[in-house]
Amino acid sequence: MTLIKSISGIRGTIGGAIDDNLTPIDAVKFAAAYGTFLKKTLGKEDIKVVIGRDARISGPMIHALVANTLIGLGIDVIDLGLSTTPTVEVAVPLEKADGGIILTASHNPKQWNALKLLNDKGEFLSGADGAEILKIADAGDYQFADVDSLGTLTVNDSYMDIHIDEVLNLPLVNVDLVKEAKFKVVVDAVNSSGGIIVPKLLEEMGVECVKLYCTPDGHFPHNPEPLKEHLSEIMKLVVEEKADFGIVVDPDVDRLAFVSENGEMFGEEYTLVAIADYILSKNPGNTVSNLSSSRALRDVTLKHGGTYFASAVGEVNVVELMKKQNAVIGGEGNGGIIYPDLHYGRDSIVGIALFLTHLAEKKMKVSELRDSYPAYFMSKNKIELTPSINVDAVLKQVEGKYQSEEVSTVDGVKIDFENSWVHLRKSNTEPIIRIYTEAGSQAAADELAIRFVSELKAFARI
């Protein structure tokens, strides 16, 4: 069993021993640390926090523990109940709240849950703030409120509808055009809260929706990470239903993947590429994704006259660089769309609405749209090293060998070759180097990965 503490929150498996899993004690401890951080930082009494959860089985238990811990600190809680990560992010500034907590382990299996922590903008905390919360948790430095100063609980279950309204009111979302197209889609929401909000959005946009695993009971029917190897059922059903395409979201609805009308995956990396192509055609500008995302976004950005920037891996890093470079669209290659005109967070709901508009305007099949973009293929591998090996020194040797190429050391070592790239990242928790490659064919991407595995082993002398 596992408990992982990081600057973005805490996640772990349900059950087992304290400090080794996400037990009720651990949930209370980290909720108290977050609430204490807000009280110390803001220096005021009237603090308000928005909370919401996905549909996983442990959600109601963790939700009650977190909400009542905040109330015990004297903090008022706006409870969205069953919700999504982007919905909570949208709600925080609309409620003029001081922060937010999303109870979700995202794409992790059902035995996992997590506390994801937000600031008053509805964005993930900075590294410095996250580190401070971990210090408070380790010290156990909490001061709870007396009986006359307890916080209040306000239930507001309208925010999925509000979120949809905010999306449909965006200038680049054309509901009338989508209605005219009379699309039919299949939705796999892995029996979580996406099963509520995605069909509602589609209904508002005049799209016929065939539901697959849209009962929000937390019993995930397959691995909830939206990857091809987990999605055979929707790939088959799209063809059987003669649907225009399929939509897949993860349990907290911040990752988005599409299935083409022929039952083939559109490609998780190409979710962002397609939506960026649409946004840039209307509003040319800069884009951002992380270093491990497809080069196709760079190509599309250049086509529209913009500049592409690559950030370190992690949503908070993408957002920081998007703000710095005034990017009009950005995100991560795992199907995470960040559209600043709505909010700075990965959001499948705005992604679906923009993709539908793009497709309606293009008047082409989803497979044809995919074929219109540069063809790249990725390979993801890792090499395990012994604890005695200095991983940083190994990566430094790689950097030196390829100094004549275009090299980035923002996050590990990324080497851009003319027709391919490789990104080497070390794990923060174990002696592992992750190897991401991309090239013009799967064989070339795999071959590049094999080559760098061999080179890393040679540098590490293993």
TrEMBL record:
Annotated GO biological process: carbohydrate metabolic process; peptidoglycan biosynthetic process; UDP-N-acetylglucosamine biosynthetic process
Occurrences of domain Alpha-D-phosphohexomutase alpha/beta/alpha (ranges): 8-141, 175-263, 270-375
Any one Gene Ontology cellular component term annotated for this protein: cytosol
Cofactor names: Mg(2+)
Alpha-D-phosphohexomutase C-terminal domain location: 395-452
Keywords recorded for this protein, A-Z: Isomerase, Magnesium, Metal-binding, Phosphoprotein
Signal peptide: none
Record has Phosphoprotein as a keyword: yes
InterPro entries: A-D-PHexomutase_a/b/a-I (IPR005844), A-D-PHexomutase_a/b/a-I/II/III (IPR016055), A-D-PHexomutase_a/b/a-II (IPR005845), A-D-PHexomutase_a/b/a-III (IPR005846), A-D-PHexomutase_C (IPR005843), A-D-PHexomutase_C_sf (IPR036900), A-D-PHexomutase_CS (IPR016066), Alpha-D-phosphohexomutase_SF (IPR005841)
Keyword Isomerase: yes
Family the entry assigns: Belongs to the phosphohexose mutase family.
Name this polypeptide is given: Phosphoglucosamine mutase
Organism: Flavobacterium aurantiibacter
Recorded name of the encoding gene: glmM
